[in-house]
Design a protein that fits this description.
It is a single chain. By secondary structure, the chain is an alpha/beta fold. It is globular, with a radius of gyration of 17 Å. The protein is built from eleven helices and eight strands. The strands form two sheets. It has a six-stranded parallel β-sheet with strand order 3-2-1-6-7-8, with helices on both faces. It has a two-stranded antiparallel ribbon with strand order 4-5. It has two domains: 146 residues, Rossmann fold; 51 residues, no CATH class. Strand 6, helix 9 and strand 7 form a beta-alpha-beta unit.
């Protein structure tokens, strides 16, 4: 039996080889979207305000946005076999994303992947809602800390960016690349570096889990 019962996986830049939201903002948005990102990283605006500001210039219909995402943003080629391997080993896989939401299921379906739960923000013709946020904290759109806490444990978390920081803090084992490596180092979170999902599978096949850091209060806590 594997050491984990659940694997939570970021989408943009992780399950998918591209940051899909960034591709859509470059194609359909305004160059100022990067300023929103910089303000968010500095802690000047919350995720919800940043995303809404970034997509405000969008005028394309949903089907055009989705078609562009499916055409230009393929999944990691090792992801489908990883999901199948998890199913064979009775490990639940869930996509947990703080992105735009509308393109995840179509990209998965285009790769022949169905039945993977998706925890993300809701997009409805440009209107964003955040049903998976924390009931008290309003900093993130989708609360990845809460997603980890609600999953059957022990929990593995796979990510790469700033939006994955708080999920990583509460997971039992963390797989990190890109910006998440530095964030885990800063937060004292043990992590396994990875390049693709073959690396994740190999590690989960042989490794025990170190357990979560799990501070009593999430460092991103912000009650509006």
């Amino acid at each position: 039996m594997l050491a984990v019962r659940s694997v939570l996986i970021d989408f943009d830049g992780t399950a998918c080889t591209h940051d899909v939201a960034e591709h859509l903002m470059d194609r359909f948005g305004d160059p100022s979207w990067r300023e929103w990102d910089e303000r968010w990283i500095r802690g000047e605006v919350d995720t919800r305000a940043a995303i809404r500001g970034q997509v405000a210039p969008f005028t394309a219909p949903d089907d055009e946005l989705i078609a562009y995402a499916v055409e230009h943003c393929p999944l990691d080629p090792t992801f489908a076999s990883f999901v199948a391997w998890c199913r064979d080993n009775d490990v639940a896989t869930t996509i947990v994303s703080d992105g735009l939401g509308l393109y995840i299921e179509p990209i998965l379906a285009a790769a022949g992947i169905t039945g993977v739960p998706i925890v993300t923000n809701d997009w409805d013709g440009g209107a964003l809602a955040f049903p998976n946020g924390h009931p008290e904290c309003d900093w993130c759109g989708t609360c990845k800390m809460l997603a980890v806490q609600r999953a059957d444990g022990p929990v593995a978390f796979v990510g790469e960016g700033h939006s994955d920081r708080y999920g990583a803090l509460y997971a039992d084992i963390v797989f990190a690349k890109d910006e998440l490596v530095g964030l885990c180092s800063d937060d004292g979170v043990p992590f396994m570096p990875y390049e693709d999902f073959d690396d994740v599978r190999e590690t989960l096949s042989v490794s025990s889990v170190p357990g979560p850091v799990a501070p009593m209060r999430c460092p991103g806590w912000h009650a509006g």
